[in-house]
Amino acid sequence: MLPRALRIVNSGANIGFLRLFTRYVSVSSRAVMDIAGKDGELRVFIVAGEVSGDTIGSRLMASLKKLSPTPVRFSGVGGSMMSKEGMESLFPMEDIAVMGIWELLPHLNKIRAKLKETIEAALLFQPHVVVTVDSKGFSFRLLKQLRARYSWQRLDSPVHFHYVAPSFWAWKGGEARLQGLANFVDHVFCIFPNEETVCKSNGLAATFVGHPILEDVLALNLGKQISPFECKIEGKNEDFRSKFAIPPGATVISLLPGSRLQEVSRMLSIFANTMEQLKDSFLELINVIHIAPNQDVENYIRSFVNKWPVPVILIPGGQPHTKYDAFSASSVALCTSGTVAVELQLARLPCVVAYRAHILTEWFIWYKAKIQYISLPNILMDSAIIPEALFQACTPTNLVSLLMELMHNKELQEKQRVAAEKVISLLFPSERILNNLAAHVSGTSFSNTTPSMIAASTILCHVKS
């Protein structure tokens, strides 16, 4: 059962864990670990292009080091989190952290140069495994050109993994594009339910490992038995209010403007104007701005808030306990679309999702998207559980209206909380995998059966084609 498979791991579980996945993942020919064993190390070239990818990459690196019987050496591109796990990035990750259509154009030459630099570094590193994390525009070009270079030079190609399946379900014609990926991607790690089945039906090997946000759940609930339908993170409301001297009658609103500088610079002014209009509705209004672990973003926000319309508390990235304490102290949250919407579901904090982009990017999304929602909880539930203010509707006036309605409507708040249980349960690693763990590893159960552990185990047991 799921709860049974999520208890504390015994110190000797790693061997059993790998034996299980050796059975679970198809194995023929020469395994990666056999080749790495002869070389005396497992060389992993890993690339992440944004903050969320940096977090996923760092956890995967930690899991590989924990499970691998052979020393692991890393090279590639990442941020501060991946650096802590022992990788020196080829260049700042922010150099390729660009999203959008029009927004990309001014950076094309730089990104082409960075792509070439990354390919040359990968070839020089001679990896056994290449892992790209999200950022599909850069990642797929890298994997495709790497595969072509190895073929042209008649060299054995490393195994290519891509972590976070492309959101084919969101775009017209998206599923049809999966078939071409099998030419240069050997295995995809899916973070949403049903993606694995669709990928496999299009000839692309895939594993549903669960959503990366579950790593926070297990880390912050260490030692506790967890049920997917009861999965949440409870922060310390009173501790947070005491630490930051928040008056008893003050209303706290958490703001999460994004992780990329381009979206933060666009959204922060909208959030500020929203708070300017909202402040007279409360005796005392205090904002908590959560900063992504991106130095450019942090510098921008710290400079911007000098003229913020209400008292503001800044929470730097990389402090999950403080983040969830702030959520606990907040009445509601206003966030830019992204993973944070799921984090707020974990905290059971009612929220409003906002999103703006360049007008051409917005037009492209409107024309090509085949789903009507942008936040993951709404997509999974196929219902407007979370209020969304998108594109031209993302104005301070509209955001004020949505926030006020949510704060004063208990029925809407309860609707979000009930939906949160279902949403989080859908993001857990597949029951099939967890049941296999419990069934095949005698006397052992796993509280650390996290997405990164499952992905690392799959990598270690995968064949070298």
TrEMBL record:
Enzyme class: transferase
One Pfam match: LpxB
Reactions it catalyzes: a lipid X + a UDP-2-N,3-O-bis[(3R)-3-hydroxyacyl]-alpha-D-glucosamine = a lipid A disaccharide + UDP + H(+)
UniProt key word Transferase: yes
UniProt KW keywords: Glycosyltransferase, Lipid A biosynthesis, Lipid biosynthesis, Lipid metabolism, Transferase
Family annotation (SUPFAM superfamilies): UDP-Glycosyltransferase/glycogen phosphorylase
EC number: 2.4.1.182
Top-rank taxon, per record: Eukaryota
Name of the protein in its database record: lipid-A-disaccharide synthase
Native source organism of the sequence: Hevea brasiliensis
Taxonomic lineage: Eukaryota, Viridiplantae, Streptophyta, Embryophyta, Tracheophyta
